[in-house]
Write a structure and sequence with these properties.
two-stranded antiparallel ribbon; two-stranded antiparallel sheet; mainly alpha
């Protein structure tokens, strides 16, 4: 129920200078126990260099106890409003049928984009930056982009998935996307605005985008190769599926 967030979390491990003093940060441990834990817990020792040590300094800081449910619910409500403010005008202009569909797909897209905005805030704060309005807008656009891209891959059959991948490769290489319907038009508009808000020449971003595309491509190819098979999956099949799922989600978070 409670989130214990150490104030030292922004500091990486290793040699760090804090308030003019060099510290070799070997690890972090929570001292104390939960009221219902039934006694103190043993803490394993951290490794130390094989050399004489003159002194050991303990860096101690209080932790913040905050109810997770209340905090996340408040953030979700806030980002749900901002996400819809960013995306609703684009949908009404370029793909109005999405709002009027009976399957609540528009609401699903807003909820997914809200979740991606929450993930974006976590990633931004871990990296030590402020999650400002610009980054909130990027988070909402990226959530919409991922929602539509996943639908091209997963919801309309293998032929549509392969067509999307082929045309998205052209988008990555040449900046051009062959738009065939309103759904794809919305995807292209959102992607264009997303790229306009980011430094797409940053090596890490370009590498993550390409690797995300390759992970999507491998996922579709693997799915097609397993479609006609019967019986249980081999150990190698399971490893490949695990790696594909990891890369598809991991590179999406990096982007």
């Amino acid at each position: 129920y409670y989130s214990v967030r150490s104030q030292m979390r922004p500091y990486p491990a290793g040699l760090q200078r804090i308030a003019g003093v060099d510290y070799d940060l070997r690890g972090m441990a929570e001292i104390g126990s939960d009221a219902n834990a039934g006694g103190a817990r043993r803490m394993p020792c951290t490794s130390r260099p094989d050399m004489p040590i003159a002194a050991v300094h303990l860096l101690m800081t209080p932790v913040l106890l905050a109810p997770i449910a209340d905090e996340l619910e408040a953030l979700a409500k806030q980002y749900r409003r901002t996400t819809e403010r960013y995306l609703a005008p684009l949908v009404r202009t370029h793909y109005p049928a999405l709002i009027s569909k009976d399957d609540n797909e528009y609401r699903k897209m807003i909820e997914f984009s809200t979740k991606m905005t929450l993930v974006a805030q976590a990633c931004t704060e871990v990296a030590g930056y402020c999650f400002d309005e610009r980054r909130q807008r990027i988070g909402a656009l990226y959530g919409c982009c991922c929602f539509l891209a996943d639908s091209f891959i997963d919801d309309f059959g293998e032929e549509a998935a392969l067509s999307y991948l082929a045309r998205f490769e052209i988008l990555l290489r040449e900046g051009w996307f062959d738009v065939r319907n309103e759904r794809e038009k919305l995807f292209y508009i959102v992607t264009s605005r997303l790229f306009a808000g980011r430094d797409v020449f940053h090596p890490m971003l370009r590498d993550a985008i390409v690797k995300l595309y390759l992970a999507q491509q491998r996922d579709v190819q693997m799915r097609a190769s397993l479609a006609g098979r019967t019986g249980s999956l081999s150990r190698q099949d399971l490893e490949d599926l695990r790696a594909s799922t990891r890369d598809r989600g991991g590179h999406a978070i990096v982007v």
